[in-house]
């Protein structure tokens, strides 16, 4: 049970980290476009 | 990855290639089921026929080498099994494509199979928007299996005490073991991939439903796009690729899955074991974040300078999307191929070309130099500069963090430089041949980077109309690059040596 929870938490953290890479694009786009 | 000694044992090589081929034959039953469900009787017949041919070929090879199944393979033989299986597998898996009538020639079919298995994503298919569900399923299964590796798939069915498994595993350009045993490592890789398949299909199906697709189409498109994203493949069921869905939400979901797909399987395993801090400490994620930030700035500045996209949302959905798709070696596109050349300008094209060459992580579904090697090379330069400036007593051992702290040995540094050099030479040759075919320098460079990095972004060169010699060149290069050169070179030298003994 504990192992399953750890694995699912790992998946969620990886998905959040991957989603975090989009911040790089959003920040760059907003800075450079002056939005 | 080194070739230890001259190889001569053909029987065990055939035995193991036979097992991999039988696995590929069994896989063809999956698109057959989809064809049966959608009443695509002609395609169903094609798959039943090709499954039989593939399984029969694998069985004959396995029976021929069965007596020698316990023979311990050398590293050289392991690499020949891997590259030989990829070659024969491509020839056999192309038969359903050929019989489907969606391709101009058998070479085009082989190109698409190799493109799928190597998770490149370039395609020569005709009328992609009206493909049968069975053929679409087969395209995406190939790219999903290729991402993990067809040897990795076959190893999951072997017994744990198979002494040759690690040599074949290394031959497929995966040299990291998640667990002490290569068979267990392969099973773990498939366990991680299948867990993500469930999560990813659910998320992408929801995204497809929100884009207005009917439930059954949303499920199929969601599953196929997820398979392609996770494998950093780039195949999509529609000719407009991701642009077809016209949805920022859909595009964002694909970014999440192809970024995760470009992570190292050892990293997935470590994070899923509860060591979450590895995500921010690992040299590959650190390298990827730094290069992505730098290249995003260059791309965005280049696009703004040429006034290509001036609005923030469009800069993100067009500029950043293609860049991150290229950097993870996925190849999903939200613009038309020709827009790169006619609209983007040299600066943005330069940044995306560099991103495609750098690629994702080692031991992942991604291609390119890989973050581990880029990190090692950067760390070596840093140490050498320190050596010039500081006294020897203040120079410490060269260390990186990859799952644990690793002290870099000379052989690791040499290996990193060697493989990156091989990529650069291959990229140069691909560019040169592209120019010979009559394409301008900028286009030839872009497509060469895409092919060498197993990316799949296209500037418009790759099509069924391109010269046969260019198709053949690209096909060989994506095979070489996916297996990181050594396995294919070992197979080539083995064949030449055998032929030399027979005819000279």
Strand coverage percent of chain A: under 5%
How far is the first residue's CA from the last residue's CA of chain A?
Answer: 47 Å
Main beta sheet of chain B, described?
Answer: 2 strands, antiparallel
Number of helices of chain A: 1
Q: Rg of chain A, please?
A: 15 Å
Mean pLDDT of chain B: 91
- From the alpha carbons, calculate the radius of gyration of chain B and give it in angstroms: 22 Å
Shape of chain B: globular
Biggest beta sheet summary of chain A: none
- Count the DSSP helices of chain B: 22
What shape does the CA trace of chain A take?
rod-shaped
| Helix-strand topology string of chain A | H
Name the assembly state.
heterodimer
Approximately how much helix is present in the residues of chain B?
55-70%
Q: Give the termini separation of chain B.
A: 30 Å
What does this entry look like structurally?
Chain A contains one helix and no strands. By secondary structure, chain A is mainly α. Chain A starts with a helix and ends with a helix. Chain B is built from 22 helices and two strands. Chain B has a two-stranded antiparallel sheet. In chain B, helix 5 crosses helix 6. Chain B starts with 9 loop residues before the first helix and ends with a helix. The A-B interface holds A 6-7, 9-11, 13-15, 17-19, 21-22, 24-26, 28-30, 32-33, 35 and B 195-196, 199, 252, 255-257, 259-260, 263, 268, 271-274, 276, 279, 285, 289, 292-293, 296-297, 300-301, 304, 310-313, 315-316, 319-321, 323-324.
């Amino acid at each position: 049970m504990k192992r399953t929870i750890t694995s699912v938490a790992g998946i969620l953290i990886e998905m959040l980290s991957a989603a975090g890479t989009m911040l790089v694009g959003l920040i760059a786009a907003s800075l450079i476009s002056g939005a | 990855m080194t070739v230890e000694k001259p190889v001569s044992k053909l029987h065990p090589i055939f035995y193991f290639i036979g097992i991999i081929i039988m696995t590929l034959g069994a896989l063809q039953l999956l698109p057959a089921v989809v064809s049966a469900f959608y009443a695509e009787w002609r395609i169903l017949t094609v798959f039943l026929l090709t499954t039989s041919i593939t399984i029969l070929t694998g069985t004959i090879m396995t029976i021929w080498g069965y007596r020698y199944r316990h023979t311990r393979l050398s590293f050289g033989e392991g690499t020949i099994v891997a590259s030989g299986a990829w070659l024969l597998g491509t020839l056999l898996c192309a038969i359903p494509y050929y019989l489907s009538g969606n391709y101009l020639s058998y070479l085009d079919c082989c190109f698409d199979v190799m493109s799928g298995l190597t998770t490149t994503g370039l395609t020569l298919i005709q009328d992609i928007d009206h493909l049968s569900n069975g053929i679409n399923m087969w395209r995406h299964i190939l790219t999903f299996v290729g991402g993990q590796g067809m040897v990795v798939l076959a190893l999951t069915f072997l017994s744990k005490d198979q002494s040759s498994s690690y040599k074949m595993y290394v031959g497929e350009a995966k040299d990291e073991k998640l667990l002490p045993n290569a068979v267990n490592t392969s099973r773990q890789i498939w366990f991680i991939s299948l867990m993500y398949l469930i999560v990813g299909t659910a998320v992408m199906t929801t995204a497809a439903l929100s884009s207005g697709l009917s439930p059954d189409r949303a499920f199929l498109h969601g599953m196929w796009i997820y398979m392609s994203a996770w494998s950093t493949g780039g195949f999509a069921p529609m000719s407009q690729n991701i642009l077809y869905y016209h949805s920022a939400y859909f595009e964002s979901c694909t970014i999440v899955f192809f970024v995760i797909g470009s992570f190292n399987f050892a990293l997935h395993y470590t994070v899923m074991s509860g060591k979450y801090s590895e995500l921010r400490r690992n040299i590959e994620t650190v390298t990827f974040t730094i290069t992505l930030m730098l290249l995003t700035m260059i791309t965005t500045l280049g696009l703004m300078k040429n006034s290509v996209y001036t609005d923030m949302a469009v800069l993100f959905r067009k500029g950043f999307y293609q860049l991150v798709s290229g950097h993870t070696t996925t190849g999903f596109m939200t613009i038309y191929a020709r827009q790169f050349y006619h609209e983007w300008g040299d600066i943005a094209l330069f940044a995306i070309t560099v991103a495609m060459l750098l690629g994702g992580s080692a031991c992942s579904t991604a291609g390119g130099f890989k973050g581990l090697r880029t990190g090692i090379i950067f760390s070596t330069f840093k140490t050498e500069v320190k050596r010039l400036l500081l006294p020897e007593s203040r120079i410490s051992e060269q260390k990186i963090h990859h799952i644990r702290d690793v002290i870099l040995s000379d052989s690791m540094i040499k290996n990193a430089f060697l493989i990156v050099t091989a990529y650069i030479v291959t990229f140069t040759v691909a560019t040169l041949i592209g120019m010979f075919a009559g394409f301008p320098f900028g286009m030839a460079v872009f497509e060469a980077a895409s092919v060498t990095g197993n990316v799949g972004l296209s500037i418009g060169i790759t099509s069924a109309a391109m010269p046969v010699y260019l198709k053949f060149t690209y096909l060989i290069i994506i095979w070489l690059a996916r297996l990181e050169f050594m396995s294919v070179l070992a197979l080539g030298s083995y064949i030449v040596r055998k032929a030399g003994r027979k005819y000279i």
